[in-house]
Amino acid sequence: MSTDVVDCLVIGGGLVGASVAYGAAKSGASTLLLDEGDAAVRASRGNFGLVWVQGKGDGLPVYAAWTRQARLMWTDFAAELLADTGVDVQLRETGGYWFGFSDEEMEQRQAMLQPLWDQGGVPFQMLDYSDLKARVPRIGPAVVGGSFCPLDAHVNPLRLLHALHKGMTQAGTRLINGAPVQDLAWDDGIFTATVGTATYRARRVVLAAGLGNRKLAPMLGLHAPVVPNRGQILVTERLQPFLASVTNKARQTEEGSVQLGSTEEDVGYDDRTTLPAMKALARRGVQTFPLLANAKLVRAWGALRVMTPDGFPIYEESAECPGAFIVTCHSGVTLSALHCKRISAWILGNEVNPDSTRAFSSGRFSKGEPA
Amino acid sequence: MMEEALFQPTLVSERPRIEIRFNGTPLEVPAGTSVAAALLVSGVAQFRTTPVGRSSRAPWCMMGVCFDCLLEIDGKPNVQGCMTAVKENMDVRTQWGAARYE
């Protein structure tokens, strides 16, 4: 066994890659993480910060159960991150509200959430205007009602990324920044990653490069038809606390800023902000919470989600190159604890139920499909 | 918090003076200047407190960048004192922590 061959090579230093590397390193695997650098698209730097369960899995109920399990691991995970790194990721387990603006929206919502409870065990409660007003007093009259899920929560996503990086390096992960992988090869059970003139060797490799996985996956017989989907977010000045619980479109941070999100736009790799989107976000924010009408906006940004054709993750080991894994999703915050624990165990061959990832293989997408 | 002024008036002393209120106390200040300058020559050393740590702040850049001169002006919270012209009878108050909108 050559000493320069690591157990686990992770490609991509965002929330997904750092979670897997943190878990792998804590299990005792020698772990190397190659991060492309700031030229990368960086979905993890534009995140809204929701740990969100409500509504996840519409069309694939096993994903509702998966998300629920990931959420239930979060309480201990936040405590573990604090103990390991001293970083408080500000997990607030408030339960989350969705707001409806018409009776039709309310009916559709209930019809969508019911099977996720029946088949995925995700609890929810429909609330009419007066029930909702009693629980979220600052809503405006345009809100017709809402739904509530006690599992929803939120964190500070930048603190989370920082904590994961600190945790994984403390646990022994070697992090190399500014290392875009140009080529991946597999020979006799050993993977070789090429970065410029340097090469790195590993017994296992994890593709966690977000949108970059699209290009890397075919090098190891994997398939990642991921495309960018832009979300824009507005941020207000710091306000006195008025929103105790997280909502799907607004959250008030620990420091008082209110984040208003978000758009879903198919605009390729353009991550800029646009005036029409910012106006629409501001209008809906004020409709929901009229007190925001006079609040000043201090920032806006756009970021690109990593989306598969059906919106669900891909977890798969390469049949062609065993030991090569793909891990890609657009819920890097919500799924962080699960990626750290169960996905890293699956990659290292220690998962008790390795079949649990089967529903998330890329076999559900046609390889000929122009995604 | 009124103390010895951080700045001494020079040419502004020749300007006509107007009256404003700071936290309810009448102040005579030079006309034709910014609210921040008017308060500084009047000895005001605390303009705002920070929303999280609650520590005191006074103007630093005087050119619209640092946001340390935030005040409540005529009922409006988080207004930049250095970017606002002082006017007769203006009601200026300390910005305590984060803004509140009702």
How would you describe what is shown here?
The complex is a heterodimer of chains A (371) and B (102). Chain A has 371 residues and is an alpha/beta fold. Chain A folds into three domains: 5-52 and 158-225 and 310-362, 3-Layer(bba) Sandwich (FAD/NAD(P)-binding domain); 96-150, no CATH class; 227-307, D-Amino Acid Oxidase, Chain A, domain 2, CATH 3.30.9. Chain A is built from nine helices and 18 strands. Chain A has helices at 15-26, 61-72, 74-85, 103-120, 129-135, 157-170, 213-216, 275-288, 336-347, and strands at 5-11, 31-34, 50-51, 96-100, 125-128, 145-149, 153-154, 174-176, 183-187, 190-195, 198-207, 227-236, 246-247, 250-252, 258-260, 297-307, 314-317, 324-328. In chain A, strands 1, 2, 8, 9, 10, 11, 17 and 18 form an eight-stranded mixed beta sheet that branches. Chain A has a four-stranded mixed beta sheet with strand order 5-6-4-13. In chain A, strand 9 (183-187) and strand 10 (190-195) form a beta hairpin. In chain A, helix 1 (15-26) runs parallel beside helix 6 (157-170) and helix 1 packs across helix 9 (336-347). In chain B, 7% of the residues lie in helices and 30% in strands. Chain B is built from one helix and seven strands. In chain B, strands 1, 2, 3, 4, 5, 6 and 7 form a seven-stranded mixed beta sheet that branches. The longest helix of chain B has 7 residues, at 35-41. At the A-B interface, loops of A face loops of B.
Notable characteristics:
heterodimer; A: 371 residues; alpha/beta; FAD/NAD(P)-binding domain; D-Amino Acid Oxidase, Chain A, domain 2; eight-stranded mixed sheet; four-stranded mixed sheet; 18 strands; 25% strand; B: 102 residues; mainly beta; Ubiquitin-like (UB roll); seven-stranded mixed sheet; 1 helix; globular
